[in-house]
């Protein structure tokens, strides 16, 4: 692993394994995450569980940097986890991502500005 990353970062996959614009489910040390490659060198990771309906966000659709839940249409900003409106009112946790030598590493600790989704 890259010496610059702390021990909370876990290698999840190779960057080439993620298609641009297609969410993917990943289990990162027991945490279900939706990984979304929004550009050739940009990947986001959020908790995969919709805070409104407890369904997989990785099965939703991407619109720019917004991931829409397939069940009721809740939309979450991939950068902040903030829902853009009802029915969801609670943000999803956002996890830091590092791209190192063609590999995707994700931290198991949510970004400080996001709240962890209660289990």
From TrEMBL:
PROSITE patterns: RIESKE
Source domain of life: Bacteria
Gene Ontology terms, MF aspect: 2 iron, 2 sulfur cluster binding; metal ion binding; monooxygenase activity; oxidoreductase activity, acting on paired donors, with incorporation or reduction of molecular oxygen
Keyword Cytoplasm in annotation: no
Positions of the Rieske domain: 10-106
PANTHER family the record matches: 3-PHENYLPROPIONATE_CINNAMIC ACID DIOXYGENASE FERREDOXIN SUBUNIT (PTHR21496:SF23), FERREDOXIN-RELATED (PTHR21496)
Name of the featured protein: Non-heme iron oxygenase ferredoxin subunit
Organism expressing this protein natively: Candidatus Phosphoribacter hodrii
């Amino acid at each position: 692993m890259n010496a610059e990353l702390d021990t909370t970062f876990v290698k999840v996959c190779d960057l080439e394994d993620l298609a641009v614009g297609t969410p993917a489910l990943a289990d990162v040390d027991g945490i279900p995450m939706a990984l979304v490659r929004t550009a050739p060198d940009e990947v986001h990771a959020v908790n995969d569980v919709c805070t409104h309906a407890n369904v997989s966000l990785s099965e939703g659709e991407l619109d720019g940097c917004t991931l829409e839940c397939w069940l009721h249409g809740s939309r979450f900003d991939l950068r902040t986890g903030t829902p853009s409106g009802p029915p969801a009112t609670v943000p999803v946790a956002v996890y830091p991502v590092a791209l190192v030598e063609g590999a995707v590493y994700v931290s198991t600790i949510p970004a400080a500005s996001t709240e962890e989704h209660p289990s």
